[in-house]
Amino acid sequence: MLRIAFAGTPEFAVPALRTLASSRHQLVGVLTQPDRAAGRGRKLKAGPVKLLAEQLGLPIAQPARLKSEQELEPLRHWSSDLLVVVAYGLLLPPSVLTLPPLGCLNIHASLLPRWRGAAPIQRAVLAGDRESGVTIMQMDAGLDTGAVLAQRRVPLDDRADARQLHASLAELGAALLLDTLEAVAAGLAHAAPQPDRGVSYAAKIDKAEARIDWRRSAEAISRQVRAFNAWPVAETRWQEQQLRIGEARAAANAGSAPQAVPGQVLGLFDDALRVACGEGVLAVTRLQLAGRRMLTAAEFVSGSPLDGARFT
Fold first, then answer.
1. How many domains does the chain have?
2. pTM (2 decimals)?
3. What is the phi/psi pair of residue 269, to 5°?
4. Are residues 211 and 188 in the same domain?
5. CA 257, CA 238: separation in Å to the nearest integer?
6. pLDDT by residue (tens digit) across 205-251?
7. 49 plus 30 within the same structural domain
């Protein structure tokens, strides 16, 4: 049995914390980000990991940084064998990385060394990767450069979106973590250095990337829509209003629309609003005006006729 401290903040980390709590190992404490102001009232709101830790009755620490002795005191007090880190949100200084005798393990939502960095799930979908997965890594001072203890792969198809992939990789990572911890506890874990080839970086998503350029291909725009579901959500402009595209696909066998300009609405076919692109046609199935709820294409058209419309 291992004494384990946990560091995580958002929903992605919840399955791992829940799995550890039900395992034979002893959870001794949870590090999570400070509560943040949220909503119109800007009231402080706890993150998903903190809420679960409270339900489990675990000791919780929320340092703004991990640099002073006071901020490190909870970790020292917990005397853990290792620290499990899942989407914590703070870089760990060497003083933390070397504090637990067995070091720090991280669940990363990509097949390292591909997509090191902040947004591996969205970048994988945006790039049209045909597979993704999770990596359990022994953390070092670099950005997701640590030696790999375990990986598990999942195939991606043209329907995979970031929301679905986020949920499935969170569960997959939790299961793989438990297997890895059993190997660590038995002294059977082997950490292999990451290869030098195949390195790519998943830069943080900028909200400006959500704006659709209809001169691009339908395939590229479809990936953009799927990558930015559920945030920041792909968007365009119609009648000087923001119009968010929640779900879309490249229309099969649609070819191009030779007489249409990019962004021109071609009509409603098979419950999808077809829009001309620089190459091919995008079939939009869910969309939303600012301040309204997300609608199916048929619902949207029934309230907002789009004959001759053009998205920009």
1. 2
2. 0.93
3. -135, 130
4. no
5. 20
6. 999 999 999 999 999 999 999 999 989 999 999 999 999 999 999 99
7. yes
